[in-house]
Amino acid sequence: MTREVTLGLVQMSMSADVEFNLRKAVEKIKQASSRGAQIVCLPELFNSLYFPQAEKAKAFSDEIPGKVSEALSKAARENKVVVVGGSIFEKSGGKFFNTSIVFSEKGVLLGKYRKMHVPQDENFFEQNYFAKGDLGFQVFETSFGKISVLVCFDQWFPEAARVCALNGAEIIFYPTAIGRVDGIEQVEGDWREAWTNVQRGHAIANNLVVAGVNRTGREGKIEFWGSSFVSDAFGKMIARGKEGEEIVIAKVDLDHGKDIREGWRFFHNRRPEAYKKITE
Question: In terms of C-beta distances under 8 Å and separation of at least 24 residues, what long-range contacts does 274-279 make, across chains too?
Fold first, then answer.
């Protein structure tokens, strides 16, 4: 017996027209569903250009519930798919967050995750716009399995993936906005290779499926490289996109991760009493 689920990763480019981007995302959800996807994930900040590459920019924010969440709820219900709403620029009271919203195949809001690790770097001035997430790490129970969402910069932090796994996640989705930046040399090494490998490492260490969902296209100084992918629970690349627009479809077996966890005993042999340094 296996527990198979089909994932649809929407790798798309965005324009300055937020309404057009939302309509496009809804259409992509429909297309992914028609190809058999049961869970569909959008990229980070999918309904706008990546405005944080400027230190100051006007950007469309929305509340939850709001226009964007209502459109995604309808898309989930009409296409009978779980929708991971990448992330949006959420307005909540006097604060703003980089927030992912998750809907069941009936269009019910299962919850939201606010990006916990917010970068502040050249062309990624996110702390100018977003407060740090205040909801902790979430696990959403869907009809197809237990999923978590971590957003872009979160992917560099092994603690985030581990907490999601300890809380029962079987799949982690990483909606992302990452690419090459004009004028900045990759002196550390190949950024895309590191981006891929660190997420595959999370899959192996935590015995779960990882799906990285990146945007694509040129925006200002950034060339987003797409390359969305799905890794199984032992780091095997199940599917990978190219650099242009596409929908990446991948079938994964959730019992595979359970078998690895039982066989390799990573979690059984943990030593939490020795890890206090991590929380200092």
Answer: 278/159
